[in-house]
User: Fold this.
Amino acid sequence: MMNIFEISEKIAQRPPFQMIEKVVELVPNESAVGIKNVSVNEPYFMGHFPGTPIMPGVLICEACAQLCSLVIEKPAEDLEKNLYVLLKIDGFKFVKPVIPGDQLEISVNKTKGGGVIVGFDCVVKVNGNVHAKGSLTFTSIPKESLGK
Amino acid sequence: MNNEEMKQKLKEFFMSDLGVDGDVLNFDTPLFGDEIGLDSVDSLEIISFVDDNFGVSMTGVGKEHFQSIDTIAAFIENNKA
Assistant:
């Protein structure tokens, strides 16, 4: 269990790009269940779409990715040198639209990794119904290589 | 696992995980050429698969070893414990 303050100690993203607000289950390096509350006040609803607010699928993927990053345990010396980044998005389906007022219950389970890549299966539910699902793969890159 | 079984296992991985069409993938087909068209993201998947399934690390290995299923299998054969 982690609240927003504990989450902010672990991840670098900040509002309006912080997509996990509570973690209700966490097994380090294996799995997690996290919560995101979707509010009509979120800035992207101004344009996506005017008068018909629907949460963009890429931001649902981002919410899953942020929860995955909380599952991956990283030694401090690793974090100083390396950045964990999204490498692949596989087979994502957006089964039902996510709209303001929905509470996303996001489950992520590690399927492979420990070496150069780490893979997760992700499921996003609202009121027990699946709204999105797919797989994400991450890798680490040396910070000094960025932009080169 | 003999050499032929190893190559078949690699081929099945390319088909199921990397979406390569088995009809055009032979053991000597260039993986990163125009026909199959794998990229650097796929090479990380190959490294991970080989490490997990054969216990051989291909991190930092020259790209000549990634040219085909034949060359990957030869590298595994020459470097397994």
The helical segments of chain B are 3-16, 40-54, 69-79.
